[in-house]
Amino acid sequence: MGTNIRHKDSLFSSLFGNETALRELYSAIIGRQLPPDTPIQINTLTNVLYMEQLNDLSFTVDKRLVVLVEHQSTINHNMPLRLFLYAARVYESIIDRRTMYNKGPLTIPVPEFIVLYNGKEPYPDYAELQISDLYAAACDLQPAGIKAAPHALELRVRVYNINDGRNREFLEKSSTLNEYSIFVGKVREYAKVMPFEDAMKAAIDYCIKNNILKSFLEKHSSEVFNMLLTEWNTEEAIAVSREEGREEGKAETAIEMLKDGFSVDKVARYVKMPIEWVEGLSAQV
């Protein structure tokens, strides 16, 4: 099956948004080779804003519903909740609602949630996130006579670090994923010493010359350039937004401390900000 690239796609979804590439990638993830005739049904939702970027893929394979996300920014610990909401929408799209009112039980695909981390901040080769980690502390409203039980709802997300040089055994089982990891690593390497647009061009040229995603880049170099530029701008915007949020949080903390009578010097040391900045807040209190 060919790859139909749209400018709103991410590079990740463009590379793996076909049955052959997904079969290879999923085989690497589960550690066993799926037969080439194993059917894969792609059911990625469109225009769903649960993800920061359009880099998610949802598909059914071997009686499993797999939601796969490539994550380029810092791992978001709310991801299990976001994937829970996303999965509910996917199930709605693949199940005939009328059958839910039948007397007999339905058979639905087993859910599986995978995040491939490709961010710049340090992260282990493998980690798991659970939706139960987000639950409020246990309350005292347990029904009388009922023993405490495991959470009624659990969702686990497997997170793999796919940066170049990490999880080598895993990456080598999927040549496309391995080459994608190398390509992204080259973009970041060149971006340290030249403007980002020049870095993208240099990385594309390097990979074509070294037979890394060669046919894909030769055929779609202009689309790849536009997609990477969009993803970079989105990643930078997210980083700025997070930094602004941290600054706002520091300001709120400083104001409350000043109201409680703490000295400007002590507040500045506590929130780790210049004393002139805290003095400016002090004048507003």
Key phrases:
six-stranded mixed sheet, alpha/beta, single chain, 285 residues, 6 strands
Please characterize this protein's 3D structure.
This protein has 285 residues and is of the alpha/beta class. It has one domain. Helix content is 46%, strand content 13%. It contains nine helices and six strands; from the N terminus they run H-H-E-E-E-H-E-E-E-H-H-H-H-H-H. The protein has helices at 11-16, 19-30, 79-94, 168-171, 175-191, 196-209, 214-259, 264-271, 275-282; strands at 40-42, 56-61, 64-71, 110-117, 126-130, 156-161. Strands 1-2-3-4-6-5 form a six-stranded mixed beta sheet, sandwiched between helices. Strand 2 (56-61) and strand 3 form a beta hairpin. Helix 8 crosses helix 9. The chain is flat and about 70 Å long. It starts with 10 loop residues before the first helix and ends with a helix.
Q: Could you write a compact summary of the structure shown?
A:
This protein is an alpha/beta fold and 285 residues long. 46% of the residues lie in helices and 13% in strands.
* Global geometry: flat
Helix content: 40-55%
Radius of gyration: 23 Å
Uncertain segments are 49-53
What is the terminal separation in angstroms?
64 Å
Q: Quick one: how many beta strands?
A: 6
- Main beta-sheet annotation: 6 strands, mixed
Q: Numbering strands along the chain, what is their spatial order in the largest sheet? A: 1-2-3-4-6-5
Averaged pLDDT: 80
Helix/strand structural class: alpha/beta
Q: What is the succession of H and E elements?
A: HHEEEHEEEHHHHHH
Strand content: 5-15%
